[in-house]
Description:
The chain has nine helices and 13 strands. The protein is α+β, with helices and mostly antiparallel strands. It has one domain. The strands form four sheets. Strands 9-10-11-7-12 form a five-stranded mixed beta sheet, with helices on both faces. It has a four-stranded antiparallel beta sheet with strand order 3-2-13-8, covered by helices on one side. A two-stranded antiparallel ribbon has the order 1-4. Helix 2 packs across helix 3, helix 3 packs across helix 4 and helix 4 crosses helix 6. The termini are far apart. InterPro entries: DUF4238. This is DUF4238 domain-containing protein.
Amino acid sequence: xxxxxxxxxxxxxLKHFADNTSKxxxxxxxxNMEQYVHYESICYKRYTYEEKSSDDRIIVDNILxxxxxxxxxxxxxxxxxxxxxxxxxxxxxxxxETIWKYMFLQEIRTDSGRVxxxxxxxxxxxxxxxxxxxxxxxxxxxxxxxxFNKVMKKDKNLESFLSFFKKxxxxxxxxxxxxxxxxxxxxxxxxxxxxxxxNGFQILMPISPYLCFEFxxxxxNCSDNLWVKMTNEKLCYINEATINTANYYIIxxxxxxxxxxxxxxxxxxxxxxxxxxxxxxx
Length: 282
């Protein structure tokens, strides 16, 4: 059996943002419109993980799709346990390592992630990025996506690559509690700072409207508490970062409020705005 619709954001994770009708609200970045859709109907492309031959023919073998599915199964089980628990649960170190590794996998399996990863290898990681990858850059670098698919499906290349991603000791893991986390087709967000903590770094991935995975270095947060409460100010900042890095969809359990709508408008329609955003000012 061949899988044609291949989700770059797994349905088993997306579903936790849906309401009791299995739908959520999205801003469709390409169509420039808000929609109310079933969680299975977005964040996929036909044959997105299949290799293209030199004559532009798609070689359908599902090798990479099946590899990714195995990792999805591991993280989905952990997320399901956390989201559905009636009280804060505990995680062992192996589960935390699985979350760390999967967040990097999720980061590189999207269109922008594949383009960025292959570009970094081609340029020997010599060029740092200041702004997120835009849709035009993805369209101009489709061959990078094909290179990723071709390389990562062979032998144990994907597994070997992911084996390098081990959580550093100085990165502390938390499950943050908030109300109203957004997500997008690029659900993993990394931020530096704030200005008073110049060496601060964190990687986040919302897993529901109310919960977010968070790895922070010691400069940002040295607490070893697993469960923490995220302030409303920080939650707003993370939601802005989520909007900044989206290429195709911004996803919300509830209708976007006026502040979010204005931010989305500026992000995608005001060509000069992103250079003045607080997220990118030096």
